[in-house]
Amino acid sequence: MRFIPALGLAAALLLSGVGGAGAQQKFESLRGDVPIDQLSKNDNMFRPERDQDLIPRDFQKQPPLIPHSIKGYNITQNFNKCMDCHSKERAEETGATLVAKSHYLDREDKKHPNISPRRYFCLQCHVPQFDAKPLVANTYKPAAKRGE
Predict the structure, then answer these.
(1) In total, how many domains does the chain have?
(2) pTM for this structure?
(3) Which helix (H) or strand (E) holds 8?
(4) What CATH number does residue 106 fall under?
(5) Rounded to whole angstroms, how far apart are CA atoms 129 and 131?
(6) Beta bridge partner(s), residue 80
(7) Enclosing domain of residue 116
(8) In this predicted model, what pLDDT tens digit does every residue of 12-67 receive, in sequence order?
(9) Is position 117 within any domain?
(10) What pLDDT digit, counting tens, does each position of 111-134 carry?
(11) pLDDT per residue over 80-117, tens digit each?
(12) Closest CA to 85 of 71, 99, 72
């Protein structure tokens, strides 16, 4: 007798199109029909901002945005172009923002003289600011600052 309710549920799902082939929605990316391994006309559609003032953060713990172009910057296992200006040794001389102390801690919060490998690849979190129109409608509002 348990078979009949299960059969009814399966029939209802099949008739509603859930789990079946049904009509599939066509998805179109901003790349158009260009394969992922080729450049599209949109790959260069944003103009990076020239050097500018520090960009305010919109939420707590947001990684700072990069206020300059990073074109030609290389970050490899053996070399990090960002450290030419942002290292402890060079930040004061260059006027660049010093790398946060948290970037020198390992996962056990032990301090090291060099940047932790988990923080070494800056572009995992930090991105350059672009002068770009939103690609989709956006109603985001920054969070209120502490104490406001």
Answers:
(1) 1
(2) 0.60
(3) helix 3-16
(4) 1.10.1130.10
(5) 7
(6) 75
(7) 49-135
(8) 766 666 554 556 777 777 777 888 888 776 655 566 566 777 778 888 888 988 98
(9) yes
(10) 999 999 899 999 999 988 877 777
(11) 999 999 999 999 999 998 999 999 999 999 999 999 98
(12) 99
Query: Which residue type does 55 have?
Result: I
The pair of structure tokens assigned to 145 is 């600052």
114 is a domain residue: yes
Classify residue 109: in a domain, yes or no. Answer: yes
Q: Is residue 25 part of a domain?
A: no
**CA-to-CA separations, 75 to 30, 70, 121, in angstroms, rounded:** 27, 11, 7
Tell me the three-class secondary structure of 49-116, residue by residue: CCCCCCCCCCCCCCCCCECCCCCCCCECCCCECCHHHHCCCCHHHHCCCCCCHHHHECCCCCECCCCC
Q: CA 3, CA 135: separation in Å to the nearest integer?
A: 50
User: In one letter, which amino acid is 8?
Assistant: G
Mean pLDDT within 63-80: 88
Question: CA-CA distance, 16 to 124, in Å (whole number)?
Answer: 43
